[in-house]
Amino acid sequence: MAGLADGQVRLVADDGAVAVLLLSLLFAAADFEVVDGVPPPRVAPSGLLETLPALVRERALAWERHVREVETGLSEEGSGQAAVMRPEYDPARRTLAQREEAKAAELSAAGVATSAVTVRRMRARYRRQGVWGLVDGRSRRPYRAYGQADERVVAALDEVLEAGRERSDGTLTRLRVYTERLLEQRHGPGVVALPSVSVFNRLVRTLAEERGVQGSARQRRWRAARPAVPFQSLSVMVPGEVVMVDSTLLDAFVVLDDGVVERPELTIALDVATRSICAASLRPRGTRSVDAAELLAQMMVPAPMRPGWPQALAMQHSVIPYERLLSVDTRLAGAAARPVIVPQTVVVDQGRVFVSSSFVAACASVGISVQPTPPGAPAAKGQVERTFSSINTLFVQHVAGYTGAHVGARGRGARGEAVWTLGQLSELFQEWVICGWQVREHAGLRHPMMPARALSPNEMWAALICVCGYVPVPLGREDYIELMPVKRQKINDYGIRIDYRTYDHAALNPYRGRRSAGADGLWEIHYDPHDAGRIWVRLPRVGQEPDYVWQDVPWIHQSLVAGPFTDFAWQHVRQVVAGRADRAGREHDLALALRDLLERTAAGHGSHREKTVAARARAGQDRGPVPGLLCGPKADPVPGRDVGAEDSPGPVAVVEGADDGPAPSEQAAGVVQVYDPVEESLRW
Question: What is the three-class DSSP state of 528?
Answer without folding.
Answer: strand
